[in-house]
Amino acid sequence: MRRDGAANREKVLLAAEHVFAEKGAAASTDEVARRAGVSIATVFRNFATKQDLIEATACRYLEKLTDQALALAESPDPGKAFASLLRTLAAAGPVKMTLMDLLPPHDDDGQGLSRPVTEAADAFRSALNGALHRAQAVGAARSDVTGDDVSLLLRALAHATDLSEGEALDRAVGIVLDGLGASPRGWGDRHDG
Questions:
Q1: pTM of this prediction?
Q2: What are phi and psi of 143, to 5 degrees?
Q3: pLDDT at residue 39, rounded to an integer
Q4: Which of 16, 18, 41, 78 lies most in the core, judged by the most C-beta atoms within 10 Å?
Q5: Of 11, 183, 180, 10, whose CA–CA distance to 83 is shortest?
Q6: What is the 3 state secondary structure string of 48-61?
């Protein structure tokens, strides 16, 4: 792909992320093109259908979250890294859930999703599990907590969160982290006493 074509594709995906997050199923490819500053022909040159655009946007978003999880994994303090990851994922949750809800019907294991979406979701799940296991290994997370537990809590936060509720979301995430922790100290600076 030529450099300008790749740049246009990236602009379309970034715009689509925002448009789909705001408007859900009512989002139009025309609005995506307008926000990306490209023609509708450019959108369809890169994505043959709206569904292809939704899938590519979901993959890109999951890949971005996976990259953030893997970057945090490099932290020397696995407890703080896990807490930071949960805060990041809780804030990103509403967009992630909206994108995933726009995909074709699928079960909890991702059956029914396209291969690229399934692979992106699996990589994301693996990164989340890795961060959890590192936190558990140093006693910063309860040993009986599973990745599925964390995913369920993140989905609940995403469904209950309005993007404008920053302070309320931070308190809720703090409560979840305290519940997941082996002790309040496990989460580093977040615990106030």
A1: 0.81
A2: -70, -20
A3: 95
A4: 16
A5: 180
A6: CCHHHHHHHHHHHH
Nearest to 171 by CA among 181, 186, 159, 157: 157
Is the four-CA dihedral 180, 152, 19, 127 of positive or negative sign? positive
Average pLDDT, the chain: 85
pLDDT of 117 strictly over 70? yes
Q: Which two tokens stand for residue 58?
A: 């979901």
Residues in the chain: 193
Region 2-27 average pLDDT: 89
Token code pair at residue 33 = 């093109």
What's the half-sphere exposure (Cβ side, CA atoms, 13 Å) at 146? 3
Q: How is 20-74 classified by DSSP, letter by letter? A: HHHHGGG--HHHHHHHHTS-HHHHHHH-SSHHHHHHHHHHHHHHHHHHHHHHHHT
Q: What is the pLDDT of residues 93-105, one digit of tens each?
A: 888 888 888 887 7
